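Two records follow; treat each independently.
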Amino acid sequence: MQVTDLDRVRTLIVGIGALGGTIATRAAAAGMPVRLAMRTAESARAIRSSGLRVSGVGGPAAAASVEVAALEEYADRFDLVLLATKAHEALEISQLLSHRLAAGGTLLCIQNGGVAKMLFDRLGEVVLGGLSNLGATMVEPGVYEQRNAGHLLIGEVNGGASERAERVARFLGGAIEMRTTPDLPGAVWAKLLLNCSVTTIGAIAGRTMRHYVATPAGREVFRRAYDEALAVALAGGTRPQRMIVDPIPPEGEYDAWIDRVLEAYGDIKPSMLQDFERGRRTEIDFINGYVAQLGRELGVAVPINAAITDLVHRIERRELQPDPARLDELARLGG
């Protein structure tokens, strides 16, 4: 994004779910030059009719009139495309989005796991990566609730200082809190480690981490899934950043480290479990599945992450249901 006048940054927000919708509402309410892209013309008409509203942390905001259309209806080119869809949708529409960028434009991806790296490998330097700890829910289309005072963290996919990231952060900072990092790979892996363990295992068990880690099987599966993912990160040359907890459990202090993880994440209902409950496709292939794929490429043993990926797909197909017994099955697997 090379535009220096922030009032003229032509911006398209793609994906108006919980996260994208919250950002879009606050941006539109602040008078920022944003347009919105929906999956279908019908859903776009509904948002044009209802407008956007957000409540919760950060205070209420609303935009009665918004520029919104189905993605394929846009012929304009944009300085910034903020991609806030599910991971698989991001990959499906990435080529189309690259043709919606103006010269020097930026595609900012804020999906979990390895999506930004996958898109960077496809599209090159136009891709800027990011991750979110902004908690939000979609009450209904066009109506959102912000659940915490979180932020977006953005940076270059392969790391390094970035004036581009700083410019994007200044612009989007008119809507939500933004931060930049010269070590995005380390930040992505820090979140991925927890997604592979806290989130996915809780979804399989149908329980929060505090419940499942109290069982011998749950604690063992957590340890093995986390350790495998950490080994893959280190083998690939990335040391995960410290976020709320140190990504590498201190030697001889594992129980105290687990307690710190529990304090931060132990009572959160896994988002993947919500996907199961709503019959939605999960992002497992970009979380544990991504770790399993990289592990095989790097020669790192990843049996638990591979088994977790297969198990989640079986739950998606309704062959199985989330149940704590699933963790007993995983714990019996050989290393």
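The next record belongs to a different protein.
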Amino acid sequence: MGGASGISFSNAIWLLPVGVDVMRTPRNNDRFTFSAVAKDICMNKTILVLLCGVGTVLFCFRGLAPAQYLDYSFAANAKNGERIYKSGCVSCHGKDGKGAPESISAFERPDSFPDFTRCDQTTAEVNTAYRAVIEHGGPTRGFSQIMPSFAEALSSQEVDDVVAYLRHFCRNPHWPAGELNLPRALVTEKAYPEDEEVISTAVNVQGAPGNESHIIHEQRFGVKNQIEVDVPVNFQNQSHTWYGGIGDITLAAKRVMFSSLRTGSILSLQGGFLLPSGNRARGFGSGSTSFETFAAYDQVFRTDTFVQLQFGATLPFRTSIAPQSIFFNSAVGQSFAADHGLGRLWSPMCEFVAARDLVDEAKTDWDVVPQMQVTISRRQHIRANLGLSIPATNTQGRQKQVMFYILWDWQDGKLTEGW
């Protein structure tokens, strides 16, 4: 997703062309090193205070359970789950997982009634989502009340066994598992393919008033692919006069190259074009069609701590008016949830964001972005994130920004559903 202002919100991708000179040695006073960044961060009191605040937030969440994106000790017995399913679930969900024939069902199927053989519907769901519905019934996640609670009938281990059996209905092992779908950061683009609508905004909190919003549509197709359309909308106060307009629109495609639930890792490549739809004179666009490319790698650990990495380049066709550039975005975070990991999800994160033009004497701009994502709907398909982007290097002329987004995972239901 391209952007013309401060922080670039996702920038699309395949592989860096051979012609891009990214190996040249920078000048001594502008080394692209983490030690230099650490020194600049330590000199910025605001960043230190916010990092301490992140630590305080993590301490406050210590009473909640991890979100269990990846449970390495998940020792479920699918054979026992099959026995339980056939004795207690088959009358509604059918022997084949597609649902019992409506002619013999005692209820009318709601629109959200699952077909467990549909890999596109089931693989994106995490085990804890299944557990929550089995233990507490459908309404706990905004589904129909015809799904009862089995908390009194099944032990925790038996619920795990049933979940393990339900997973076998999807016969294609190549679909990326939902446990690898990590919380969306404000800047760093994740590797997992999505079905989402996102409105993301950055507002200047110092200097000239202004804001930039991105209206983003992401849609999966096939097993490992996603298309993306990103439309930026800018409003800036320039010389005491407000101007507005769209920025450079991004059209991109993503493909998962590797994913493993066993290792907790996923790697994707994305490629696309930024169209020169923004007004270059107002600073809303580059004035040139650009090809953008990045690789995104996400890793979730045994403790459910996660790391997201993104590295790519923006390559304008007309370098005489817009320079080539590279960027590196990273996010580290942890998710917590009430009700033994089954309730509302809280995900404190911190991003470290870097961008550099590929021109002589250019400097690398680093930003630190502490933030918090939270699920809003019971179905967890509506989420919000709020953070603050703080320049850590080359701060002159670069502004702090309040950043936030609202996200709708439309594959999980309508905006009006799941509350």
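Discussion point: The radius of gyration is 23 Å. How would you locate this feature using only the token line?
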